[in-house]
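Data card: per-record layout.
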Amino acid sequence: MATLSRAEIEAALQRLGELAERHREQIQLVIVGGAAMLLVYQARLTTRDVDAVILSPHTVANVRKWAQQVADEQNLPDDWLNDGAKGYLIGISRGPTIFTAPGIQVKIPSVAQLLAMKLSAWRDETDIDDARRLLQELTGTREQIWNELEPYLVPGREIKAKYAFLDLWEDLYGAS
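The structure for this 176-residue chain is written out next.
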C-alpha cells in the first residue's frame, strides 16, 4: 500500500491549488485523519491518503478532476484525496488554516472534533496513538474535555467513544 509523506502531500496540495487558480477557482478544504495528524501534529511520517471535505460545493466536480490529474502527474494513488472520513464529521468546527497557496486554502477542525472522530472510529493502534496525542493538546478536567468533544461524536458510537476516552484519560492522567 502506497503512503504519502508531508512533502508529497504539500506538493500535491500546491499543484491542486495551481490547477484551481488556472481556472479562476478557489478550493477550500478541511482535512482530517492521518493527514491532519501528519501535517499539524507530526504524529507520524506518512499516511495512506488525505481525507478531506470540500467546503465549496460548486467546485467539487472540478476538485475531483484536478485531484486525479495531480495523482497522474505525481504518481500518487488515485484516491490520494478523498472524502472517506465524512461519515465521522458531525458538522465542521472552526480550526486553524494549515496550508495556503494560490488557489487553495486548507483547514482542520478543532482539536476536540479531531479527538471525537478518533474516539468514534477507535479501530486500531494508530487511532489510539492519534487520540492520545490529541488529548494531550487539550486542557481542562476530564468532564470539561468530554463536554467539549461530545457534540462531535458519531451517533451510535457514543458509548464506544466514552469508554475509549476514559481508558485514554486513565492511561495519561490516572483514575482521577
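Known properties of this structure: The chain has seven helices and seven strands. The helical segments are 6-22, 33-41, 60-74, 111-121, 125-135, 142-149, 158-173.

See the next section for split statistics.
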